[in-house]
Design a protein that fits this description.
Keywords: ATP-binding, Ligase, Nucleotide-binding, Protein biosynthesis. The chain has two domains: 16-251, Amidase signature (AS) domain (Amidase signature (AS) enzymes, Alpha-Beta Complex); 268-483, Amidase signature (AS) domain (Amidase signature (AS) enzymes, Alpha-Beta Complex). 38% of the residues lie in helices and 12% in strands. The protein is built from 15 helices and eleven strands. An eleven-stranded mixed beta sheet has the order 1-3-2-4-6-5-10-11-9-7-8, sandwiched between helices. Helix 2 (30-48) runs antiparallel to helix 3, helix 9 (312-327) packs across helix 11 and helix 9 (312-327) packs across helix 12 (377-398).
């Protein structure tokens, strides 16, 4: 299906790499880049609703400052003048940050998240805050307190979630890159449904300081982009150790942009023979085409087993809600956002949370609180942690035989609004193939690889071991090249 076109300025490249090169070289003004993207937003944002807030004035001011620095002979950074959209669960100083929840109504953080500071240091321009499933809990961006986001490829369908606004913003041309957060697939699944690249790095690769927590042992920030190169460029800019985050990995990271042309000759690509069933035939067909393409490019396809893979979904929906029930206890009407007046403090807590939290958030808080309660902790939460360890160990054994693993990203292409909303289990199954990687803490990425039913995008997921982003990106780049040829054609 062809996206409706937005009038474009020929001199503004479509990629972040092209924009940054033009601005740094003086051939392109950051101000013109921003105006081009604001025009694209004005043309289609009313029908798509990718943003909770478009920061037009701030973006124009930042672009003008970049142009002044370039004119003065400064090198403003590898993302010079590149518009970036931020998922609205990342703190921006003085700018509303809502998590798409009414309970944070009116809250303006007093500081920037580390990733926001690093984007600014790299010369990027924040153009807006994007919509999401409330507190990142969902797989369709239908759970937002500000209304759903629509898929730019077909506005009757969901963009995926929870980072649906960030994925849609890139797919619609509102920004060449964006940031999302991934707790159980919330970057990779919407990337697949919107036909863009989405990356969840190794846990600790990118600082979580300033990311409003859903499940602290699972959350990780990563980029959306139209190309693998742009995703690498952004990840190079935001990655690295941060003393503000105790889980941040202290080792330095080598530039990912340097590995993209190395190819896959000699790499072992793992096919998981005990992968849970659930992928639609059109998605399974694209996965097979991806294996063929990598084999043709010089890789070897090997069979591996990850026996605990199929238990990840149940373990996740005990661990993540348990952590959420603890993290979201801070939203009580006292310190942040919404406050509903009541006769006493406990009544105020209850009234504020009843009015401020949506149905899905309440469902997960209650599930998590139950799993942590006396008498049930060992039976549910404790057992889920043991399954998590088994998943990690099974992946470790698989990576002894394969350098990367390939799976579907999403079991289906983008589905219509309302198709799964009344059945939470059906919605949770959207993350069947992405959740295990979060539990293991490993990196994963979704790369567009042709189309499936109704001409909608299909994503193939590339998984790698801890801190092996370089190999993952090599394979992702090879898949992207193959997608342009006869093997990758839908």
């Amino acid at each position: 299906m062809t996206l409706p076109t937005v009038p474009s300025v020929p001199s503004v490249p479509s990629t972040a790499a092209g924009i940054a090169a033009g601005v740094r070289g003086g051939e392109l003004r950051a101000a013109d880049v921003v105006e081009h993207h604001l025009a694209a937003i004005a043309a289609r944002e009313p029908e798509i609703h990718a943003f909770n807030l478009v920061m037009a004035d701030q973006a124009r001011a930042a672009a003008a400052a970049i142009d002044a620095r370039v004119a003065a002979g400064e090198d403003v950074g590898p993302l010079a003048g590149v518009p970036v959209a931020l998922k609205d669960n990342m703190c921006t100083q003085g700018v509303p940050t809502t998590c798409s929840s009414r309970i944070l109504d009116g809250w303006r953080p007093p500081y920037d998240a580390t990733v926001v500071s690093r984007l600014a240091g790299a010369g990027a321009v924040v153009i807006g805050k994007t919509n999401l499933d409330e507190f990142a809990m969902g797989s369709s961006t239908e759970n937002s307190g500000f209304g759903p986001t629509r898929n730019p490829h077909d506005t009757t369908r969901v963009p995926g979630g929870s980072s649906g606004g960030s994925a849609a913003a890139v797919a619609a041309g509102f920004s060449p890159v964006s940031l999302g957060s991934d707790t159980g697939g919330s970057i990779r699944q919407p990337a697949a449904l919107c036909g863009v690249v989405g990356v969840k790095p190794t846990y600790g690769y990118v600082s979580r300081y300033g990311l409003i927590a859903f499940a602290s042992s699972l959350d990780q920030i990563g980029p959306f982009a139209t190309t693998v190169h742009d995703a690498a460029l952004v990840l190079d800019a935001i990655g690295g150790h941060d003393p503000h985050d105790s889980t941040s990995i202290p080792e330095p990271h080598s530039p990912l942009v340097d590995v993209l042309d190395r190819g896959v000759e000699g790499l072992r690509v793992g096919r998981i023979t005990d992968l849970p069933e659930g992928a639609d035939p059109d998605v399974a067909e694209r996965l097979e085409a991806a294996f063929d393409a990598l084999r043709d490019a010089g890789a070897t396809v090997v069979d591996v087993q990850v026996p605990a893979f199929g238990y990840a979904l149940t373990a996740y929906y005990l661990i993540a809600p348990a952590e959420a029930s603890s993290n979201l206890a801070r939203f009580d009407g006292v310190r942040f956002g919404l406050r509903v007046d009541a006769p006493d403090t406990n009544s105020m807590y209850s009234a504020t949370r009843a009015a401020g939290f949506g149905a899905e958030v309440k469902r997960r808080i209650m599930l998590g609180t139950y799993a942590l309660s006396a008498g049930y902790y060992d039976a549910y939460y404790g057992r889920a942690l043991k399954v998590r360890r088994l998943i990690h160990d099974d992946f470790a054994r698989a990576y002894m035989h394969a350098d990367v693993l390939l799976t579907p990203t999403s079991p289906t292409v983008a589905f219509p609004f309302g198709a799964k909303g009344d059945n939470p289990l059906a919605m949770y199954l959207c993350d069947l193939y992405t959740i295990p990687t979060n539990l293991a803490g490993h990196p994963g990425m979704s790369v567009p690889f042709g189309t499936g039913a109704d001409g909608l995008p299909v994503g193939v997921q590339v998984l790698a071991g801890t801190l092996d982003e370089a190999t993952m990106f090599r394979v992702g780049a090879a898949l992207e090249r193959a997608a342009l040829g006869p093997k990758g054609a839908a």
